[in-house]
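I am still getting used to backbone structure tokens and would like to learn alongside you. Label the sequence line and the structure token line clearly, so we can match residues to local backbone shapes. Would you write everything just below, so we can both look at the same thing?
***
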Amino acid sequence: MALVCAMIVVNEPLTVVSGQSARDSSSEKINVLLVTGGHGFATNGFLQVFKENPEIRFTHADHGKMGASVYDRDDLLKYDVVVLYDMPKTISDEQKKKFLSLFEKGIGLVVLHHALVSYQHWPDYERIIGGRYPEADGKSGVVSSEVGYEHDVDMPVTILAKDHPITAGLKDFVIHDEIYWGFRVGADVTPIITTTHPKSGKPLAWTRTEGKSRVFYLQLGHGPSAYTNSNFRTLVAQGIRWAKTRK
């Protein structure tokens, strides 16, 4: 089942292309832009989730140290789905316009784990992705009884939307992952999975629409134990497939 693609460096800072260009329309594979930056992660293990997905061709692009530079790409609107695993603090007005143009085009958006923390002072981002983990006065890593996180938790996951394409074939499961609590969830989202863990925020995943696009948020996905979990991989793969379909 594994599909391992050759990795090549292109002439853009901190950008790696896996497989063919998004401009190649000869294949039926889903063209995915995978966006990271602003938060550390186990790179090889995380990228393996996408390398071993036979339905996609993906480009990995990193914002680097400053802002949201991935949205300055000339090929931004050439992709079927954008996957966010980033956590930048700032975004320029021009980059905001380019991000918003995704939803005019009908490009799907999949938002993973810590991308819930991005752009603390941009209300449109919270509305679009369906929620926000609010940092204390914009400071990272502050944990309190109201808002916080905890690593290395065995978290029971309950499937709420059993007939949804993203959860198709899945049964309730347990994942060793990071929990968040105190995050906000928009009133217009459709929850699809949750947890019975008493400390974790709820739900763990939801969907909504924005413009012509489908949006999927998944709170799971902190480290290697999550990356290798078959249920997490199924949610990501089926989330990408679902988000590809435009309104």
